[in-house]
Amino acid sequence: MKWSEFFVTGEPLIYAADVAIVLTMVGIVFVLTYFKKWKWLWNEWLTTVDHKKIGVMYIICAVLMLFRGGVDALLMRAQLTAPNMKFLDAQHYNEIFTTHGTIMILFMAMPFIIGLMNIVVPLQIGARDVAFPYLNALSFWLFFFGALLFNISFVIGGSPDAGWTAYFPLAGNEFSHGVGNNYYAVALQISGIGTLMTGINFLVTILKMRAPGMTLMRMPMFTWTILITCVLIIFAFPVLTVALALMTFDRLFDTQFFTMANGGMSMLWANLFWIWGHPEVYIVILPAFGIFSEVVSTFAGKRLFGYKAMVGSIVGIAFLSFIVWVHHFFTMGAGPAVNSAFSITTMAIAIPTGVKIFNWLFTLRKGKIRFTTAMLWSLAFIPNFVIGGVTGVMLAMAAADYQYHNSYFLIAHFHYVLIAGTVFACFAGLHYWYPKMFGHILNERLGKWTFWLFMIGFNICFFPMYFLGLMGMTRRMYTYSDGLGWTPLNVVATVGAVLMGIGFIVLCYNIYYSARYGERDMTGDPWNGRTLEWATASPPVHYNFPVTPVVEDLDAYWVMKKKYGGFHVKEEDLKPIHMPSNSGRPFWMSVAFFVAGFGLVFKWFALAIVGALFIVLGLILRSFEDDDGYYIPVDEIKRMERAARKGA
Amino acid sequence: MGEAAHRYEETLPLEYRTQESRLNILGFWIFLGAEVALFATLFATYLVLFQRTGSGPTAGELFEVKDVLIETLLLLTSSFTCGLAIFEMRRGRMSGLIAWLLVTLLLGAGFITFEIREFIHYVHEGATMQTSAFLSSFFVLVGTHGAHVSVGIGWMILIIIQLLQRGLTAKTARKVFIVSLYWHFLDVVWIFIFTLVYLLGMVI
Ligand code: HEM
Ligand SMILES: [Cu+2]
Fold this sequence. Notes:
The complex is a heterodimer. Chain A has helices at residues 3-6, 12-34, 38-46, 51-80, 90-124, 133-152, 180-208, 221-253, 266-300, 307-320, 336-348, 350-364, 373-396, 398-404, 408-438, 444-470, 487-517, 556-564, 585-601, 605-624, 634-644; strands at 577-579, 630-632. By secondary structure, chain A is mainly α. In chain A, helix 6 packs parallel to helix 19, helix 7 runs antiparallel to helix 8 (221-253) and helix 9 (266-300) crosses helix 15 (408-438). Chain A is globular. The N and C termini of chain A lie far apart (64 Å). Chain B has a single domain, classed as Up-down Bundle (Four Helix Bundle (Hemerythrin (Met), subunit A)), CATH 1.20.120. Chain B has helices spanning 3-10, 19-49, 59-62, 65-90, 94-124, 133-166, 170-203. The interface between A and B is large, with 42 and 38 residues. The site of copper (II) ion (CU) has 4 residues of chain A, from loops.
């Protein structure tokens, strides 16, 4: 490979990005050195095994990735605003929709959700950490370096260009010559391993580490959705692991899984991809349902309506999500019998989802509703998500899908569920739990600005796309000719996208503004919350609970407040607390994964082997490690509790 | 911890006595659930592709019965000896435990040797991973299992060293128990490979 091929060249946009990247890196190094923060960074963050800090790091990455994916989206919208635009060429457009889709789902939605669950779940169940804190750190760093590997592709070697679905034969060696799709296969593999370990970790945590008295049917709804999500991860992600491994073999070692000669079968890829892919969209939507449930019940001041029906419908949705995957390719010749079966299973998902919608509505009924920013996102979710859901049922009718398939109708549909579902939930959760994470509240006025800009912009952007789809505009087309009548609606859509961009900027400003001027949360319970996370200080001391709380009913903290006026800790009840030690190994092992992955992408196998050897070394060192953590003595706990609660 | 809970813990087998161990063992069971999904996907892939032989040989033309039978015998026996190791561990007998683990290890290494021989043989006949979809899926499915067994061997060696260094403690006992779960799991997978790949291949 020549150096001129190693670095992507020839595009002014790319050169600008190169400069920006170099400047940012120099800036970061300078700031860290100037303020003597390297040690702090290493001790407090890079080696931490604290679920709250890991969660914060996930969310920071997710917001950065939302920026990256959002820039991709704006570039696409710029190109499509008018007919025959010359802003992006076909190849560049292909790369951009591929990275946009992949980043938004795997490196934005997933880490945002996983970040929130890291912060909240142990607190909600009254635990001091997750079951496997070391593994949790490894999960995060694998995600981080997987995402990094994927993101450098646009300046080094070239980005994948076969869509986020990477269908064969398009993604195979026959049609994709560069290293772009190697990045896809390897980077997703690395972060996928991290996700699988997160699934196992949280399943064990929720099953085994709940506070005494918290039976399964007394768990907060968010924890319930995470429990089921973990089960989905555990059964769906191995399918992705295999699919990506086979793709890697096809691309690097010329095997014949998905090729067009020697018996290869490209439809096998489509099937494997969506057997993972459909559960995956539920992996990002079920936790969203959980977040809305918490927010709605808190700000309606009522217990969640139909708790048991909620649990039942989550389980039902999770089960159905594994038997609907063919709806992604009704038009690819499976035949009427198969199509009908999958059509019915798909429509069946509307039933449990409808149950949930009504439960939220009944929770709101006669509640004393407080219109906070988090609540606004949750209220807006209901009608917007219903639009996405109803158009989903339209797509589920196999015969009709021949008309909608791969058109902008589909684009509108899945953005209505992904944005109005997952992204709204992430924003709701961010505003809701922000005081828990950082000890201050996100400014409500700015929050509402973000909400209205983003929510209105979202509808202006995507509602017209339903009609563009019906008018025949297909997805993934990089330009269109004049005279098709598509121009006005495309202009409208771009305006909407810009509004969303402005909303995002306001959010970022809000984060800065609130850090400086935001209202501190001294009580630990700024929203008059119902679940145990609000029984801790904001932000919680690193051991979370000085003594393990005892749960008497659903909405455990609410009950405590009603019965005993809060969660009281008697100093004589304190016992030394056992905590896990920090470790730098998850970090450097993930660097080794990155190095090995980079070697595979460029077929530099010597480099890949060096990386692999360091991974093995890490595993061996871990096996021999004899570190059982440490105990915090009672005096120390007393001191920390007083410091954390001095405002209360 | 309360006195009663403590007394209860004393009645458990050594590997279950600490909270951490119980979490680890449950976590490992769940990991094996994910492994089931992984191998199920590989089997599904194989079953979809195994008659798509292109211009290469079919399964019936290719497979070597003798090597496969020896491999099967070695691996099934190793699972039995692994069970004996746990039996000795429960009786608190370190020497028996280590001896049976070593036998298990050797049998596993024998299995890998024969598997590699079998693969080399196929490659010499011109049946490589690149020849046809059938062969790609065959090598990846059986090779993934073989890679798992190799990892298991390395892992068991590490644990034997730790047993020698640290003796039989709650922690080392848990490690032995978990690696034995892993080993039995690979045995089960092999039974499916034997039936769905080799037997099916030689019948159809
Ligand atoms: C923030 C505003 C967003 C805008 C303006 C936007 C816009 C777009 C556009 C224009 C396309 C390409 C249409 C085409 O040419 O086929 C697209 C594709 C896509 N978007 Fe978005 N999007 C946004 C957010 C999101 C989010 C939050 C997600 C996921 C969580 C997402 C997931 C996807 C996926 C999966 C694709 C398909 C990529 C492919 O065809 O391979 N988008 N989006
Ligand atoms: Cu689907």
